[in-house]
Amino acid sequence: GYITALRRNIAIARKTGFPYYVYPIYPMNVIWQLTSGIWLPIIQCLPKSWWEGRIIPMLRDWSYTTNQAFFDWAGSETVLVVGPDDIVCHTQSADVISQVTTRREAFPKDIARYSLISMFGQNVVTTEGPIWRMHRKVTASSFNEKNAAHTYLEAIDQTRGMLSHWFGGEKRDNDSSETILTLEHDTMRWALNIIGYIGFGLRLIWPGQKLPDDPILAKYGQLEPAPGYTMSLASSLAGVMDHIVAILLIPAPVMKYLPFQFAKHGYTSRENWQKYMRDFLNDKIGEVRRGERERVGMDIMGGLVRSAYGEKPTTTVKLTDDEIISNAFIMILAGHETTANVMHFTLIQLATNPAAQRRLQQDVDALLGDTDPSTWEYESHVNALLASHVGAAVNETMRTMPPVTTIPKIVSASADQTITTNGVTHLMPSGLTINIVPASVHRNPRWWPTRPSEITGKPTDLEDWVPERWYRETNRDAATSTANADLDDGDDYGGFKGSDVSASLFRPVRGSFIPFSDGPRSCLGRRIAVVELVAALPVIFQRYSIELAVDEWATDDEVDRMGAEERRRLYAKAQKSARDTLSAAASIVTLKLRGQRVPVRLVKRGKERFVADPEL
Ligand code: HEM
C-alpha cells in the first residue's frame, strides 16, 4: 500500500513538469506534526547537505518563518511536496497565483482543509459551487460603500475607546501610558467591537464605558456574563478561538469531563458562545416576524435571517439555523482576527521603526491637522489616507505579515487543467492541491522592487518592514508579466470592486500581493478591513507616538538620566527583541505571537523618550 501510494503520487507530480521532492511522510500528517520535536534534532545530526532545504516544508509555519529559502533551494517558484499520504503543489509565482485565483471553476477552494472553521456548520468561507454562491449571495449585499462609511466612523470611535482604556480614563492627562502588555488582546477587542457593531448592531464596550440602554443589546455587550450565562459574549468567543483545535478534535461530551483546565475552558466557551448565538438568532427571527425594518449598519444576522425567515426568502434553498449561526461566526471571526493582527503588528512596527512613524505623523498632520476625529469624514479622507504613509504602513504589514498564511485550492475534480508560466504550459492533474503561499510571494524579489537591507545587510530588504517601498517604481520586468492580463470572468460576486492599493502607490503585479486572496473567492471584507485600519491609525498618531517599552533593560529613572547615545543603544536592544519576536510569529487560523508579546507605551507627541530622535 505505502509503496503503491507513493508511486502514484510521484507519477502525478511528474506530470506537472514542476520540480518535486519526495518525503517518507507528508509534512502535515498528524503523526509527524505531533512527533516532529523528536525527529528534527536527530535529522539535524546528519550531514547538512542531506537535509538542508529539503527539510523546510516539514517545519511548522515554514511559509512565514523561512522566507524564500525553500523555493530558492528548489530553484523554482512552484514546487511539489510528495508523500505517500498527500501531495501538495506550493507556489509563490504571481503568474500561477493569478491564474489559480481567477479561474474559480478550474481551481476551487480545497474545502476539505477548512474543518477548523466549519465546526458550527457550513458557511461562506467553507463551501464551494452552487452552495457557496447561495451563502455568498446572502452575505455579500451588505458589503457596500455605505457600510464602509459607517465602519470608518465606528473605527474612529473604538480607537478612542482603546486610547482611553490605555490611559486609564481620567488619568488621561499623563504624558505616557503605563507599559502596555496587552496589545494583542486590546487590538482584538478593538476589532471585535467594530465588527460587532457595524456587522451585527451589537454594542460591545471597553472597561469603564457605559452599557447601551436597550436590555437586549446590553446582554451581548456587557463585560460580565449575561444572566443565564457563565461568560460574556466577548470572552466566550476568545475562549473558542484559544482552544479551537481541541474543540474541533475532542467531542464536546468528552471535553466536558476531561480533568484539564484547557478542556474545561474550551468546553464552557463553546457552550456560552453557542447559546449567545442561538439567542441572538431567535431575537432576529422575532424582529423579522414582527416586520421590523433593517437596522443601520450591515445587520448581517438580520440579512441571514430574512433570507430564510422573511416574507420573500432571497434564495431558493434556505439556510438552516446552523448555517445562519455558522455564517455569523465566520463573519465575526474573519471580520476581527485578521484586522486585529494587522493593527497589532502595524503598531509594533511603527514603534520599532521610528523614522517611518515620524513620516506617518507628518502625513496625518498634513491631511487632518488638529481637527477633532469626530468631524472626520469617510468620503473626504479615505482615499487620501490610503495614498499616504498610513496606507503604505498598512500595506507593508500585510505584505510582511499576511494574517492568512496559506490559501489552499484544488484542481477541479471534473478535469485536468493547465497553467502557463515563464512561457511553459504545465498540466495540473485533477484533484491536486495547490497551496498559495502569500508570505513567500510577498517577498519574492522577482515581483517586488528591492534594495540591500539596511537592517540585516542581506542583498534584499524584502524581509524588512519598509513602508517607503510603496513609493518605489513598479518593477519593469514584473510589469510585463502574464499575471497582468485581464483574467476576470466578468461575473458579479458582490463586495468591493476596486483595488486594495491606492493608485498613487506602488502597484504590485497581479498575484504578487494577495493578503485578501484574489478573484471570485477573495475576501468579502477587504474594503471594511482597510477602512478600519486607515481610520484608526490617524486617531492614535495625531496626538501620540508609540514606543517600545524598555523596562526589561532599564528603569524610568535610569532612562531619564541617560544621554542621547545611551538611549539609542538601549532602544536598539528593544528593536532587536521586537524584530525577533515578530519573526517567530505562528499561524493558527491567523498569524499571531502565540504567548509572546512586545510591550509598548503610548506617549503624547512632544514627550517621546526615544522615537523623536532623528538618529533613530
Ligand atoms: C486585514 C484583514 C483581512 C484579511 C487579511 C483577510 C483575508 C482573507 C483571505 C485571504 C480570504 C480568502 C480565504 C481563503 O481562500 O480561504 C478571506 C475570505 C473572506 N473574508 Fe477576509 N480578511 C480580512 C478581513 C475581513 C473582514 C473585516 C471580513 C468581514 C467583515 C472578512 C470576511 C471574509 C469572508 C466572508 C471571506 C470568504 C469569502 C468567500 O469565500 O466568498 N474578512 N479573507
Commentary on this structure:
The chain has 616 residues and is an alpha+beta fold. It has three domains: 2-121, no CATH class; 137-153 and 180-333, no CATH class; 335-405 and 439-604, Cytochrome P450 (Cytochrome p450). The chain has helices at residues 2-16, 30-43, 48-51, 62-65, 69-74, 94-102, 129-140, 145-166, 183-200, 215-221, 233-242, 244-249, 252-257, 261-289, 300-309, 321-352, 354-368, 378-387, 389-400, 438-441, 476-479, 526-541, 556-561, 564-583; strands spanning 20-22, 78-82, 87-91, 407-410, 417-421, 424-428, 433-436, 544-548, 586-588, 590-592, 600-604. The strands form four sheets. Strands 1-2-3-7-4 form a five-stranded mixed beta sheet. The N and C termini lie far apart (61 Å). 46% of the residues are buried. The model has no long low-confidence stretch (mean pLDDT 89). The structure holds protoporphyrin IX containing FE. Protoporphyrin IX containing FE is lined by residues 109, 124-125, 136, 195, 199, 331, 334-335, 338-339, 342, 403-404, 407, 515-517, 521, 523-525, 528-529. Heme binds at residue 523. Belongs to the cytochrome P450 family. GO terms for molecular function: heme binding; iron ion binding; monooxygenase activity; oxidoreductase activity, acting on paired donors, with incorporation or reduction of molecular oxygen. Its cofactor is heme.
